[in-house]
Amino acid sequence: MRVADTVVGDPFFARLLETLNSPDIGYARPPGPSAGLDLGVGEARYPLPSNLCEAIGRIAGQADRQWYGDPRGYAPLRAAYLADLCEAGGRDAAVLITCGGKEAAGLAVRYLLYHHRGPILAPSPGWQPYTLWAEAAGAPVIGYDPIAASRDPGIVTRALVGTQPGVLVLNYPHNPTGIGMDQAVMDEIIAAAVRSGVAVISDEVYRVFGDPTGVSAAAAPAWDPHRHLIVDSVSKSLTVAGLRVGFLVADRTVVEALAAYRGAYASHTGVLSQRVAAELLTSAVARSWFAEVRRNVAATRTETAAVLTGAGVKVISHGALYLWCAATNPAALLPTTPGAVPAQVSDGSGFGAPGRVRVCTARDGLDAAAAAAGVIETLRRRG
Questions:
Q1: Is the Cβ–Cβ distance between 83 and 75 less than 8 Å?
Q2: Other CB atoms within 10 A of residue 260 CB
Q3: Of all helices (H) and strands (E), which one includes residue 252?
Q4: Where in the chain is the domain with CATH 3.40.640.10?
Q5: Can you identify the CATH homologous superfamily of domain 35-48+286-382?
Q6: DSSP states along 114-152
Q7: pTM to 2 decimals?
Q8: What is the pLDDT of residues 291-330, one digit of tens each?
Q9: Does domain 68-283 have CATH number 1.20.1070.10?
Q10: Which runs of consecutive H residues, i.e. helices, occur in 22-99?
Q11: What is the Cα–Cα distance from 67 to 8, expressed in whole angstroms?
């Protein structure tokens, strides 16, 4: 029997705390120091150009009133984000600004599980917090193959009927596999969720890196913002994870309820961070630079995948920021360059898939051959 099952008090907190402190947990273990390339942390690392840094400096210089603000978030930022989402089809929705996408996702899970009893249908492999939160809340987790589902929406639609979940989690482009889906597939899945009466969390933090870009649950004709919540952040899309600015898109009544709930523990996200995010979302200079970053991310990832494949590494899939890899026979991999040191990668066990690794090549100035050599050296040493 788990300690959390006998606790008096908050079972969610007890279960989550016990799980996160288990020696077997693959998630939330900070990576150790690495002498090689850091291809483990899942973020796009491209320094902001000087003209954007100067713009941010001007914003900071004008921010003389660092007082409490609207619990829903800075109004110009909310308007800018919704305008951007509306390009993908968003409508009749409001947005809550959170402290990063992770908080937005956590709020979405807690809210929907409160209103929709039953299991959570979530991608496996997948971003582990969804499983951690669901299990802490006492909700069973049923997995589906995100790569197969991206090509055949029937995999999800049949699971909705067969498993009768309360909540469906979508995450495209997907972490850790990088796989994306087109809008027609998204439309079909959202329509199936409506027919089955299932609530949806659509985690779209990698949307701008998708191929095609802009695929969103908000663009689906059947999208219902009262039951279908969208999670997003500037961490990936604007390459500024340190700002800790996230978005939760939903019906206005849902946003008001969650703003009130959030106000009991967090007040609001930092005023200066929100102002900087608004500048980055609306600046023509920023848009031009981000477009170049996205092209660079795709080119480096594709080139690295080709080098790894040529060396005998099985690249299962790649897209957005990531390559999802397995080495079926590490000893048979072609030799790396002399003196190559291991690259830091994310072990698949943290996503529920031991024997796999996630590689993030979204790094400024990264040489694809050097990145591949580091990954190969890591796989060789792991055996």
A1: no
A2: 11
A3: helix 252-262
A4: 68-283
A5: Aspartate Aminotransferase, domain 1 (3.90.1150.10)
A6: HHS-S-EEEESS--HHHHHHHHHTT--EEEE-HHHHHH-
A7: 0.92
A8: 999 999 999 999 999 999 998 899 999 999 999 999 677 7
A9: no
A10: 50-62, 75-86
A11: 38
